[in-house]
Design brief:
single chain, about 120 residues, alpha+beta, three-stranded mixed β-sheet, rod-shaped
Length: about 120
């Protein structure tokens, strides 16, 4: 009788294992690939941040080395996100505002710049 109980117990376990395995066949692949996609996303994100930081530094260097600017470049805040650019801060004139935007546009290319520089002190 002990042998028969063991066989029934083993077949019940086998049934639940088979049920579990068949249920996993219908689960979306995204559940299993989640860790891979998140590591790719993190890599992508860090590369984009590095590119944004590089653009910001290049614009800052151009502003600092430009002798034709009346405004102090250290008071111009540059925000770069996914290659898009926002300029913030105060400049002495509207001509200066346009000049700074032109310098930034030369570096980032044809992308649009949100020029929030304010004229006056």
């Amino acid at each position: 009788m002990g042998y028969l109980k063991k066989q029934i117990h083993d077949s019940k376990n086998l049934y639940f294992v088979a049920l579990f395995l068949s249920a996993t066949l219908f689960l979306p692949d995204s559940l299993f690939a989640k860790s891979k996609t998140s590591s790719i996303s993190e890599t992508d994100l860090s590369e984009r941040k590095a590119l944004d930081n590089d653009l910001t530094r290049r614009i800052q260097i151009d502003l600092i080395t430009n002798e034709n600017l009346e405004s102090n470049p250290k008071y111009i805040h540059i925000v770069t996100v996914d290659g898009g650019l926002t300029l913030q801060g105060h400049v002495t004139s509207s001509a200066e505002k346009k000049k700074i935007e032109k310098i930034a546009k030369k570096i980032i290319g044809a992308k649009e710049i949100d020029n929030q520089l304010e004229v006056g002190e």
